[in-house]
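chain and backbone:
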Amino acid sequence: MVTIDLAEIPVTEANRRIRESGSRGEDVDILNPDARHHIGVGLTDPITVRVRGSAGYFCAGLTDGPRFEIDNNVGWGLADNMYRGSVVVGGNASAIAGVAIRRAEVVVRGNIGLRAGQVMKAGTLCCCGNANFMAGYMMYGGRIIILGNSGERVGEDMTAGTIYVAGEVQSLGS
């Protein structure tokens, strides 16, 4: 297990070290993330990255294979264009969580912000709380599971895929 402390190095250097660790098959713990942006972007090895706190924008973006465990909340663009792999968020996710994922699995234990699952191609986005405005906007495939309530216009302009809502649906999209 490799430990990287973001209180000591910038995210660019941390991502370089994460990629190096991945090439050796070593899992990574990220300390003191303090909602910094772009943590773990561009990873292609099947390692586990544990973020011990909250992450900012685009955490786990443009990845193929890693598993992310984020203790708290994440900013917008979570798992942006993640091909394969998984993300589990202990708190809430801001706007466009799971945007354009292909075969990834994204679980948010709290709520998801607006346009979550936008332009999803395949994979699964699971929200254990409530979803905000236009979850599944322009969705092309995959599935969104909302265990709480959906916001307005769920599934707006979607062409394929499935959205399940366990709670109340505020309104459907066109």
The CA atoms of residues 6 and 32 lie 5 Å apart. The helical segments are 11-23. The mean pLDDT is 97.
